[in-house]
Each structure stands twice: as structure tokens, then as C-alpha cells.
Amino acid sequence: QMKESYKEAVDLMKAGDLSGMYLLSLGHTWNWRHVTTLDKFIYTAELRTGLGVHYAYARMMREVIDDLCQVEVNRNIFELIHLGTAEPE
Predict the structure, then answer these.
(1) Residue 50 DSSP one-character state
(2) What is the dihedral of CA 73, 49, 29, 40, to 10 degrees?
(3) What is the pTM (predicted TM-score) of this model?
(4) With contact defined as beta carbons under 8 Å apart, do 58 and 84 qualify?
(5) 49 and 61 in contact (C-beta within 8 Å)?
């Protein structure tokens, strides 16, 4: 039942009918992908971990930066990143 309504929702939305959103379960999440260059991502990460940012968003950005530190060839660049602490305003 759940898979059928999910498939129907996706088919409707692919056809341009956004009413398919109403067939999904409450709280349904979609995978999110974003393509950017490293310098733009670092800038975004610094902004999205700063003052007043939601803690969950800041945690996700820190996890991505930590993952990048593990795979990036030039690891020295990550010493220059100034991540915030997402403290409340």
C-alpha cells in the first residue's frame, strides 16, 4: 500500500501535477542533492554554522565538512575554514 502511493505520487509529480505531494506520508523526506564548487560550499558552511542557525542544519554542515576532510587531497585548506558554533541569537 505504502509503495503504491509513493510510486503514484512520484509519477504525478514527474508529470507536473504537484497534488501527488498529498499522497505521501506526513513527515516524508526526500534526498537532497546540491552541486557546487568547494569554495562556494565552504562559504555556505561558514554561514550555515553561524549565529542563530538551527542546530540540526549546523550539525549536518559540520558532518559534511568532517567527511570532506577525510577525502580531500589538500587537507590543509580545512585549517582555514571558520565554522561557527550555531549559538542562539
Answers:
(1) S
(2) -50
(3) 0.54
(4) yes
(5) yes
